[in-house]
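Worked Example 4.2. Consider the chain below.
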Amino acid sequence: MFDPNSPEFTRPIQPLPREGPRVQAFIVGHRAFFILVAVLLAQLLLLSIQITRTHNVRLIRVWAVAVLDPFERSLRGILDASTQAWRTYRGLWQAQQENQELHLQLVAAQSQVQRLSEEAGESQRLRVLLDLKNRLPYQTVAAEVIATSPGESSSAIYIDRGSDASLTADLAVITPSGVIGKILAVFPRTAQVLLITDPSSGVGVALERSRVQGVLKGTAQNLCQLHYVMNEEPVSPGEAVVTSGLDQVYPKGLLVGTVVQTSEGNIYKNIVVKPAAELNRLEGVLVVLKPNTSQQQALNLPGHP
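Applying the procedure from the previous section yields the following structure tokens:
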């Protein structure tokens, strides 16, 4: 039933917004103007469709091109830049991959060159050692240096041959360059070699030109000193020093070193000798075995040094 006191009818009426009627009133009041603008735009559109410019291009198309051309150029520039950036990134990535592959190949090539160089050097050392072994009139055993005694001026080394190769103490150890020392101690598979630069070592030697004999002892400074040469004996720097064979350890005639300095003392000269072999770079050596009776007799025959 209709109830005039119902809340729906007693609720206050909200006022309508005023902007809507104002806009509508403005459009209604200027309707003729808007119609004229619409007619003019339609006529202009029709004319642009009908009118053609050079090469039979319609004006609407010219306008459309003029309006859309900047956007098309911008879009094309963005696409070209993106394509160029992608190509550049891809080229850099490929270049980086190729660089890494080339670096690995270079490292492998350098390692191979180093290995081949080491093998060539080892072959050369073995050839020289074998040539010396064939030229010597006595039996020898080839050995490799496996260790040195600690210290800056090492005076002993260890080789990889011992009693298993019939080695004994007091055997001369030589290289193609010259004498390096003698065996001090023998073990089953290794041996200790006392170098000629050790102060406790002693080598019977002679000057090559004058044949004056003396004893060579080490100075613990990678040098040796020749003892018991009288002041009146002529000795000059550069003269070779060879083994005399009188110590019964080193065979006669082996090169030991070269005189580098000489001066007169009270009775005997002060003679400094530099070893012929580089004792700090030893790798392959020969151990001279003791000759038997028949070999010793052959060595003592005239014509042998």
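Confidence is low (pLDDT under 50) at residues 299-305. The radius of gyration is 53 Å. Compare this with Example 4.1 before moving on.
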